[in-house]
Amino acid sequence: MSLSPSSQILTLGAIFLATLLLPKFLRWRARMVKLNAIPTVGNSGIFSSYISARRFKDHAMEILQEGYEKYPGRAFKVPFPDGWEVIVSGKTMVDEIRKANDQDLSPQEALTKILQTDYTLGRCVREDSYQIDVVRTALTRNLGARFEDLRDEIKDAFADEIPAKESEWMKVPMLYTAMKIISRTSNRYFVGSPLCRDPDYMKLNIEFTVDAFNGAKTLQHYPGFLKPLIRQFLTKVPAGVARAIKHLKSVIEERLRKEEEYGTTDWPGKPNDLISWLLDEANTEDRRKDIIYNIVSRVLVINFAAIHTTSVTFTNSLYYLAANPHIVQPLREEVQACVEKHGWTKAAMGQMRKLDSYMKEVQRLVGVSGLGMSRMAMKDFTFSDGTVVPAGTMVHTVSYALHHDAEVYEDPESLNAFRFSNMRVKEGEGFKHQMVAQDPSYALFGSGGRHMCPGRFFAVNELKALLGHVLVTYDIKFENNRGVPPPHWDGAGCTPNRTALVMFKKRAV
């Protein structure tokens, strides 16, 4: 019996759907078999897991701590709003992530997912990330030569933002003030004066960091084909890029005009700054396409990385100083001794071991995230203990729980300001425990390998210069001798208390 035309259409449609959907279903099922072999923290049911995923936003620290304690040195999985993510701990597994090549575990693809970089920071920045080479080489190498500019801007920025007097205490909203000072200081090094002091340019860089994070959160909820429209109409990213182009376009065009006039990239009077370093690296025909947007995007990306982490670290350091006045004097004495010997130079910063230890210890206590070393599994990845992480799954290491592990750090819940400088006194340990060094038990900049934060040398030297200036210029405290205000957790991300006030008074010198 022949089928009617309508039945034939339905049959063909069913075959088509089966052909299209069956392979996807089989791939999903194979992936879930591998994920189901990894123990879960929270609910693991198809529907109940969404309850745990929602809970992660406000209780990430407790969830990660539970997994760390329940599955030491092993992998566990946690439900996120958009799928399962795998968390690992223990030296062996961390080392295996660190040593994995990018074709197996990709930090770039992880960052693309977390920050939606194609839509927030620019596709060109991901597809040809030469700004990383610039940060690792020219930006880091020129720190000594440009340190006087950094110091000059720090003095002026503090004088403008915290004009405290010797006769009275001044209340300062710390986190936002720190962002303004750090935006201005960093951009003195990146783009020079007077642009670094332009109020709208400063505000842009602070706001772009926030807007990119918020934009990424919005974009994560939409399928790929809608993301260009969502970026344009539901995020503030396009407006931020347009503002940056307005500020930087004429600067870049003038540099390009000079190159054409002199027939070389090494023309007389060429500024030694980030824009020049990026233009030097943009040395191919492809990199010179749409050059204004390309350079502006990379300046924004480097500001994005510099302002957020440095502001968090600086604010946390000030909170703990204000709450622990007994630490101030030994740090102040070290800063004064180093400056007296070397001046305000990069060499002086390198000698400030106690200050380095103090900053590292504060970040051990608080940090910027409960997770570290994020990677995307590009293919099924098998750890040495047999754990299989299926392709397309995010993998992270634990950072906050590691930093508070009594088997790793003695008395881990207490501030021991000189914990790391005391370690450096031992034979052969002079470099090992400083803030920028590779350390498998310290996850702020990554636990080692080629993917450690390339900007950590600039960040740490800038932080020492900032804190050193505070120590020799001001007395600080919390009103009524309050303790450190609790940080703000949003999922695995941690920022200092956003409303806390620190009291400043200028020191009588």
From TrEMBL:
PANTHER family: CYTOCHROME P450, CYTOCHROME P450 MONOOXYGENASE AN1598-RELATED. GO terms for molecular function: heme binding; iron ion binding; monooxygenase activity; oxidoreductase activity, acting on paired donors, with incorporation or reduction of molecular oxygen. This is Cytochrome P450. Keywords: Heme, Iron, Metal-binding, Monooxygenase, Oxidoreductase. Pfam families: p450. Heme binds at residue 453. Gene3D superfamilies: Cytochrome P450 (1.10.630.10). Belongs to the cytochrome P450 family. Its cofactor is heme.
